[in-house]
Amino acid sequence: MHQSSVIARRVAAASVGLVVAAGAAACGPEDNDAKGAGGDSTPHKGGTLTVLNAEAQTDFDPARLYTSGGGNVPSLVFRTLTTRNRENGAEGAKVVPDLATDTGRPSKDATVWTYTLKKGLEYEDGTPITSADIKYGIERSFAPELSGGAPYLRDWLSGAADYQGPYKDKKGLSAIETPDARTIVFHLNKPEGEFPFLATQTQFAPVPKAKDTGTKYEQHPVSSGPYKVVRNQNDGERVLLERNPHWSGDDERKAYPDKVDVRSGLDSSVINQRLAASQGADKAAVTTDTNLGPAELARVSGDKGLAARVGTGHFGYTDYIAFNPKVKPFDDPKVRQAISYAVDRSSVINAAGGSALAEPATTFLPDQKSFGYTPHDLFPAGKSGNAAKAKELLKEAGHPNGLTVTLTHSNSKDFETSPEIATALQDALKKAGITVRLQGLEDNDYRDKIHSIKTEPGFFLAHWGADWPSGGPFLAPIFDGRQIVKDGANFNTGLLDDKSVNTEIDAINKLTDLNAAAARWGALDKKIAGNALVVPLFHPVYKRLYGSDVRNIVISDWTGVLDISQVAVK
């Protein structure tokens, strides 16, 4: 999982949009009517759904996409063994069958997972979908020229670590067996109770070997979903989808529109202006990657008509302060604790855009049941910081007159790791006698610096998002000592290598009862918090406009954004 460097970013871009979200309940009646604004709220088939996005839908190949739950636009073309439950809020954080008849049948130790395909599945050309096609689709995702997808399969499948894909190795992966056309069996090198979540990734989409065109496949991937690609311009800048006549329907995708027209490369302010004006084709438009900013939200909130067309969602995501305990004075737990007490979360949330766009966090895990959220606050700072307690700890640490530290952040205007957040922290810590010098870096330099053990600063802003709604992909990459990477991208920024933590991660991974696993993840989150290696700050919230003719709004806690497989435009 250490390669999930850009989990928050890649899950976002490929699957759910530019991530700036997290939290508790998703879209509810207080935000919009869940059916659509104005007119006949009953969803009907027909029409064209327009998607207005800032980022292009690049690498439209199931091998190369880094998605969660099958993605948003990708999920219209690629079906996978399992997928996310297409329901509002917490119900949407569950994994459900897609191509398979169930979410998988594990062996006693969860090292072998068996799936059976549903009957009658067909591609867009009417040919049958087989288990061999899913095996081949997974194998081609190992080809270096098709890299970009999630790293788990290489880590989890037996003997897969050095596999180079079917173009170089015709034998394929022995860890995947297809005893018949409808059965596929996966052999893992360690117990993984969350394999059904992994099976939602687009690497599990079937690819017919005879139609594989390598790196050109993204131009016309063969559809197993309700829509097929009829045009892909400029590597996803415009993607036009039309109905797949051989899609037999499924339990999750409604697929109401006749066509889906994805137009990208637009400025975020232009997207919000067009959605607000809602004229012509934009009446039937949505966005999967553009939030309302603080100023835009203020304008929208003052207009009842517009406010009724805002979808509110939450995604498993946390913004936080990270410490490197190898760098003085952060090698002293009391200094880290002092900073934890001194933080003014109210001012940080204001800097993030206000309470409508950010919710305070005292736990590293997002406050959703599926993650195992267990409320705790080991270093209570209250709403505006506890400067007195911070000064007391600094004195005990040998700094009776305070100290001076440097906080590294990104110069990107993302309202997460940006100058606004850094300045809010600088002001709060000053009250506790801590002088904070700010080191702002361009975004690429910032990421390179904080993700290298050789250059990691002692005190910096960070964020993390989950590949799927569980505590596993949230805690393990950040706190599992075996995932410390010395010569590459490292995400265990606190360099924690605690045998008891590592052992508990392994024990939880063996559980196939996801509710039992969630409770253990929550308890582990609280245990790790005692090390004061991070200071959770807030969980961002999505606020996104949609056109006046858009109906049937579904926003799950898996993605936090409008699910375009559910919307109707008539």
TrEMBL record:
Give the record's GO CC terms: ATP-binding cassette (ABC) transporter complex; periplasmic space
What does UniProt give as the signal peptide span? 1-26
Superkingdom field: Bacteria
* Gene3D superfamilies in UniProt: Dipeptide-binding Protein, Domain 3, Periplasmic binding protein-like II
- Keyword line: Signal
Extract the InterPro entries matched here: Peptide/Ni-bd, SBP_5, SBP_5_dom
Gene Ontology terms for molecular function: peptide transmembrane transporter activity
Any Gene Ontology biological process: peptide transport
- Solute-binding protein family domain: residues covered: 94-482
Q: What is this protein called?
A: ABC transporter substrate-binding protein
Per the UniProt record, the source organism is: Streptomyces seoulensis
Organism classification: Bacteria, Bacillati, Actinomycetota, Actinomycetes, Kitasatosporales
